[in-house]
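We now fix the convention by which a protein and its fold are recorded. These numbers are not coordinates but entries in a learned vocabulary of local backbone shapes. A record is reproduced here so that you can trace the correspondence yourselves:
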Amino acid sequence: MIAKLVCFRKLLSVCSRNFGTDSMSIKFSANITMMFCELPTMAERYSAAKAAGFKYVESAMPYLEPLESLKEAKEKAGVEQVLINTWPGDFRNGELGLAALPDRQDEFESKLDLAIEYAKGLNCKRIHVLAGMKTDKYKEAEMETTFIKNVTLAAKKFQPEGITCLIEPLNSRITAPRYLLTDVNKAVEIIKKINLPNLKLQFDFFHIQIMEGNLTKTLEKYLPYVGHIQIAQVPDRGEPDRQGEINYPYVFDLLRKLKYEGLVGLEYKPRGNTVEGLKWIKDYGLQLDDGRQRIACPLNSKHYCYKDSLEKHLKKCRKQQKDLPPYYSQGINTDNESANTRQEMKIPLKEFSTSELQDLIKKVNDLYDEHVKHIDEDILHHPCLDEELNNESFGIPAIRHRKQQASLVGQLQTLDLLREGLCYVELGAGKGNLSHWIQQALPDKTDLGFVLVDYGHVRYKADNRHKWPDSGPKFERLRIDIANLNLGKVESISSNQRPVVAVGKHLCGAATDLALRCVTKTLRVGHSEDSVKQPEHKKLKTEDNASQSAQLAGVTIALCCHHRCTWDSYVGKEFLQGCGLTPRDFVLLCKLSGWTAATWTGWKTKEEMRRESKEQVNHNIEKEMNQETKEGMKSETMEETNSETKEEMIRETKEFFNMNENQGDPSTAAGKVTEKSSSESQLENEKTDVQQSADSNGPQEHADTGPLFSRSDLQLSPSQREEIGRKCKRLIDIGRVHYLRNCGLQSQLKTYIEEKLTPENVIIVANTAS
């Protein structure tokens, strides 16, 4: 059997792939009370688990065998014991713990010492305290009081040994009908009430699915209290790939998404041979942690490999680097000064005290009033998207994208950056729709360049629709991380000498900062005497400066996903530090910025959008007319003129928002769609718009931010949280403005689209100073 296990382990190492990013894998522990039951003793199961590829094991009842025997077997196998239970009592007669039984107090304390003895002998750092079964002899409230008292006692006894005390709600419908603790909410209440740092929740998907369901939200809500996770399929408690109620590929993806770094115990009953049943690990694209350490490749931070295979990996990596394009320069757009600080978003929210949060919120309000105060609203439009915006088949997500694109093109026109003789570089281009519409705004111009930068593969590329003769503008794609991009060495940019306009609509968080650093460090900003404002140590090396022949003409980038910013990448460090903010403060700024999207409500239907937009326009007209009246424009002629002007403006507004009498006529709407010329049809059908909306600047983008950052101790209303979140965003953005100004550019923030369409409605624009 051991030979079989070794073969299976080799198969896993060859065939398995990581489920998600290489930098994080799920650590499984084998529950040898339920698994490897083909072998009669626990001692033999240690070796079997190791041969199958497990580094970690757990067991419910180690007390059936002598401690010395288990210790010797564990050490010989080379595995780690990660969990044991406390003494269950008379298990054969249905007992399952003593902690809640008032008349078994002495026995509980005695067996608690036994558990500590086994845990120390096996070097085990987690003990699950079993509550016990309800009896008619005691009221449930009395048993709960006893349980809380004994769990407190256990946690305090475990502390000096560095042992985590776990409590676990079991299901009362299949496994333990009279078990005291069956509610995960009650379990967390007890943990909060006892309030000891080494008291945690054991989260078993099998039990919680049976009792609660709603696994995703329950896990997200209680993850900060979780000290261990266990899995099994429902209802038969078999392997995860058995037919049942729980979608385990989704669960594993969720654990990675939530960055759970703890252990996942396989507490299931194999349907047959344990080893044969482990094939689900390979099928789900997972692998067992056999103790080999994974490290980042020193040549490419995107690569990970096993430490003992580093030399082999470096040979492959160096070979790949020989074929790198000339514009690839490792880490050229990262901040070398803070590259080793790693002040990332890993500081947990619980580390921020109420007073610290209150102090930072006060700073945010003061700094906002001092440095931001007001952002000009400049919601623009360009006729190149008129036909798209009149398409009645589009819903709010599609309209939002097109209004954003129309306003961005309009911003370029206002900045005199929409003309022939320029090269447009779209950073984080995705499908390249923004570049497409810029070209459509200049349909007869041929002296143009388009460079689309995106790290990933992209389907349905908009630039594929541009098939030009030799004289037409070219769309060039660069598949590269912006952190490593030297635009000055892109041949199409350096050889044509067209000034570069940097645009972006899909840059998230840190990517925005990398993009700003890229265009200001690898391109020439203004005249040589104007581009020396940065400190000497922050400039490129001499050999890189030689490539800065192409000039930056301007920047227009939509801002979003501030919760994904990082201190290492952020370009506005100098500004924030000058305001008295620290890297830790910056982490909290990013977290608080998520409050805006968490409470934001926008237009859900086109009808709602049109109605409110019309009301707002009418309100603005009324306000303007009243102001004119106050200024003395009271003659009948002027009143008639004003009345006619007002009616004309309202009529134009109705036409713009399709508020005419034929709006409700299906045949008219259908006619508008069919009149669309085939050569200028929309770039995406409804399916594409749905796919695109997942990357939109609407509330969907914050779906992966995890549980809402709710702090009842701050006593803030939803509107107050939203306002604080918005101010945090703007402080992050104004730091970027100051960076661009220090580089010799004129820069400002603008509101470029209605807030009812997206809470991410601000852009940063810049052009060369006159």
Q: What stands out?
A: The mean pLDDT is 81. The first helix runs from residue 2 to 15. The longest strand covers residues 551-558.
